[in-house]
Amino acid sequence: MARPNKAIQSNMGWSTVDRIVVQGVDLTKQLLGKVNLGEMAFLELTGQLPTPQQSIVFNAMLVTLVEHGLTPQSIATRLVYLAAPEALQAAVAAGLCGVGSVFAGGSEGTAKMLQEALPQDPLADLAEVARRVVTDFKSKRAVIPGLGHTKHKPIDPRTPCLFEIAAANQLRGRYVALLEHIGLEAERVHNRSLPINATGAIGALCCELGFDWKLARGIAVIGRAIGLVGHLAEEIRQPIAREIQLRAEDECSEQARKANPLG
């Protein structure tokens, strides 16, 4: 028996000869010149324009994610552009493939941990919830997402800034509080500094904004894409990719010759 066709439906966008509608909002009459890029991204993700408070917090999150210097992502983007300058989009895509648990994508793990751990009971003791979370991660010998930084110790300067912005806009809630409790408990258990890092803070704020944890890495991709295009703009003005490639080749070849001298 043939399977009946399921209606294909999307509310993302549609157009007529003289009109373009995005998530039910008229592009030319209600969006262009009236919303910023972060607000447009929020509309795409949620189907609703953000409140002024949500806009401030969400834009701060995106700005935090844009630039992190010469990371593996930006180096990959520059090297792919060196190899294929006719395909700028491929170079950006190469960098975005590196948005993972080590660089920029850690907010996903934090958001998942918080959404799975936070009970529906508004009176639940968050310190006790945090103890259970830390105990669980320790028993699995797993790294707690959102904590620790190789450079920023004892505080990641971005974290208090983001949390202050959230507080000023009434978006510093129980998810942020739970992550802070987890950080304190982890430091007590492991007896070392484990500051909440920027991606951890962003993961908590994703939860405060109501995003499913599965979208957290996508939010990192939005911010980082801007930064990678920026790296290509600099690469065009001031190329360094060729130097990176040649230096790596020369140094590896020299080490190989020393290890395997010809007789």
* Main β sheet profile: 3 strands, antiparallel
Report Rg: 23 Å
Through-space gap between termini: 75 Å
What would you call the structural class?
Answer: mainly alpha
Uncertain runs: none
Strand order of the largest sheet: 1-2-3
- Mean pLDDT figure: 93
Count of helical segments? 12
Order of helices and strands: EEEHHHHHHHHHHHH
Which range best describes the helical content: under 10%, 10-25%, 25-40%, 40-55%, 55-70% or over 70%?
55-70%
Percent range for β-strand residues: under 5%
The strand count comes to 3
General shape: globular
Explain this structure.
It is built from 12 helices and 3 strands, in the order βββαααααααααααα. With 263 residues, it is mostly helical. The protein has a 3-stranded antiparallel sheet with strand order 1-2-3. Strand 1 and strand 2 form a beta hairpin. Helix 4 packs antiparallel against helix 5. It is globular. The mean pLDDT is 93.
